[in-house]
UniProtKB/TrEMBL annotation, chains A, B, C:
EC number: 2.7.1.50
Gene Ontology MF terms: ATP binding; hydroxyethylthiazole kinase activity; magnesium ion binding
A Pfam family per the record: HK
Keyword entries, A-Z: ATP-binding, Kinase, Magnesium, Metal-binding, Nucleotide-binding, Thiamine biosynthesis, Transferase
The protein, known as: Hydroxyethylthiazole kinase
Source organism of the structure: Massilimicrobiota timonensis
Chain sites annotated for binding ATP: R132, S185
Pathway the protein acts in: Cofactor biosynthesis; thiamine diphosphate biosynthesis; 4-methyl-5-(2-phosphoethyl)-thiazole from 5-(2-hydroxyethyl)-4-methylthiazole: step 1/1
Family: Belongs to the Thz kinase family.
Length: 290, 290, 290
């Protein structure tokens, strides 16, 4: 194998005049979120924090109206409910018809038949531009044996520097199969399309000690997808670095102040709202695999 | 037009011996909240913070029981769901029969036919004492052309000193038409009945960077409506100043500590619980239009 | 009556080599939560904070799958919904079949017929290892006259040193009748089985000024029940002290920093994550009645 990594600074990663965060704040994209009940407040606040605008709506009778006034759609299957499955289908098809970018977050796909079959049906009837989740969820999607444990990734599935190259191979196959960018979050984030792969080394273990960091990442990614449609792979990568770096900063502040995860959650939201392209440039750890 | 504003200090605004916040804390009114899934935790905590007591219940089979043990009812149509529409009707009629004050928050009424038609049906079958929302929602209610954008007010609809008088005219017509006090939140809050109008200049732009400030205001207003039924218009005005002033204090603390919107949200709740009639007296900016 | 209290320090209360919190963190038990919409985010974060792992799922079509991959089950009837009643029954029976510990939190059982009858049905069809709630909820369960007010305990029901012994008697009868440990939270916590009784004097009034402290306690207790099945009564007692002591520490920090209930809520979560057996040993106030 001749795969190697090239670290990228922001000047190489972004086009010279590109300020991805600033452009999102200026565009204030309105995102239709069909998302789980546990973290929907976090997702709404995270979207607002980075300059987007959320609308949560999951009733079958209104999702087409709602999608029509939005610019992007997020479908997250956490706390999946039979009543909202038709809503997901309708909203997804409507978003496809309107050419809005659509993101799927297959939360806990391995945890129940309902989640697995719903995801299969969604993938059949709706085109997703991006699928974002943890490595165990991706393995289930690819029908690779996984010991997925609830909604968290299984430790034995973790992407490490040792198994990175072999993971990229099947993740790119998953991208080819689904036609979607695959964004995997974990200690090492991997974002691939069928041809290219980026690695993000931001984030910290403490982020898994609060609920919703994955869901919030999906929500924020949906906003960036609207504004950076011509550079989807780079935008998804950039957002992964953004979320991870905010997590690092929040963790550091938590430790300095000798506080716990309640404060970590607050500081994470603080840094999401304070983040800009200049600050992220200093902290992002993005590599291109080639 | 001969409309002019008179600034009021608390001694003119309240009766001499009236301590609206203290009276709410003493009465601890129990409010039945049928509200949206995004901000229901915020609404419960906001009600507790100002000394009220929340009970969230939206199943058709129990809403009449729940309303019967409460003193006031809040209906908020965010994340509207077909299953809870009959619940709203039943609870509303029961509250009317029991002569409990009822508040309607028509969140995103312009965003879907489902929300629009449900609101029309609610207005037909239930008497609301107060309708609280943003200016775009009020325009939809009044069938005035609006470019409502999701659940947020449209910038072009904003109430300014220039268009204040003309806005008050149709808002008072909306009050006559519905029989409800109309409480509009924005850079300038306007609270009217068919005859009178109050203006509140508290609050700050940053409050729109966190989800739920409007929903929380509605929840708190519902508690004040129970305790101050003989002075509903003044109570709604006072609560608007209370919420806005807490937002100002929270913003200032956020800026002093160089934090972001996660902390803004925490501090807002802090100040709601720390606020009393004496502190609000120093910060409230209420005017009477006459 | 010859009942008297014996204060216990941790060496008497726990077995010599027992570190209940550390053991939970090591085991990281996965808890299936069927819980209310108001506080589900708080419950998920509280479970993560003490080292457990939550999965929220309430659709009838998936609850058996979900329970099967978990180690414990929590059923909380706040915001009870007709659609999830069959889910509660199915999950409860499945958990019983798999011999997973099951906790019932009968939130607001006195507030509606729906909640009362559902709880009766649950008690008939599912075996609960622990029932946790406030004293008014327990009185309704025992068919004792109570003026339960919404979801909060009625002041006239409060357990005091004066009525402690007589309350313990009927609470032990309730334990015999249901076959469950009864864990009552309030100014004085009482945790009984049919034979034994523990008292916990931790906690503070301010905890009732934020929503979800009871729900979070139930969620955390569910995790401890998985890991300490051989010592359920002691584990439930220990968790009550843990939650109460975290509340005391959070209150103290709130007062020192002159902040309000928004910060109280954040600090409570902070201390849940920072708590360990050594710290709790210093602060716990547990007594055995004998």
């Amino acid at each position: 194998m001749s795969i190697k990594s090239i670290s990228l600074d922001i000047f190489f990663f972004c086009k010279e005049d590109e300020k991805m965060i600033e452009q999102v704040k200026n565009a204030k994209p309105l995102i239709h979120c069909i998302t789980n009940k546990v973290t929907m407040n976090d997702c709404a606040n995270a979207l607002l924090a980075i300059g987007g605008s959320p609308i949560m709506a999951d009733d079958e009778a209104e999702v087409e109206d709602i999608t029509s006034i939005c610019q992007g759609l997020l479908i997250n299957i956490g706390t999946l409910n039979q009543a909202t499955i038709p809503s997901m289908m309708k909203a997804g098809k409507k978003a496809n018809a309107l050419q809005h970018p659509v993101l799927l977050d297959p939360v806990g796909i391995g945890a129940s038949q309902l989640r697995y079959q719903t995801t299969q049906q969604l993938l059949k009837e709706v085109h997703f531009d991006v699928i974002r989740g943890n490595i165990s969820e991706m393995k289930v999607l690819m029908n690779i044996q996984s010991q997925s444990r609830g909604v968290d990734a299984n430790a034995s599935d973790s992407i490490t520097d040792e198994n990175l190259d072999e993971n990229i191979i099947w993740l790119q196959q998953l991208s080819s199969k689904t036609g979607a960018i695959i964004a995997v979050s974990g200690a090492i984030d991997v974002i691939v399309d069928s041809q290219n792969a980026y690695i993000v080394r931001n984030g910290c273990q403490e982020m898994s000690m609060i609920t919703g960091t994955g869901c919030m990442l999906s929500a924020i990614m949906s906003a960036f997808m609207v504004v950076h449609r011509q550079r989807l792979l780079e935008a998804c990568t950039y957002v992964s670095a953004l979320m991870g770096y905010c997590g690092e900063l929040a963790k550091n502040k938590m430790l300095v102040e000798k506080l716990g995860v309640g404060s970590l959650r607050v500081y994470l939201m603080d840094y999401l709202s304070l983040m800009n392209d200049g600050i992220l440039k200093e902290g992002m750890k993005i590599e291109k695999r080639c």
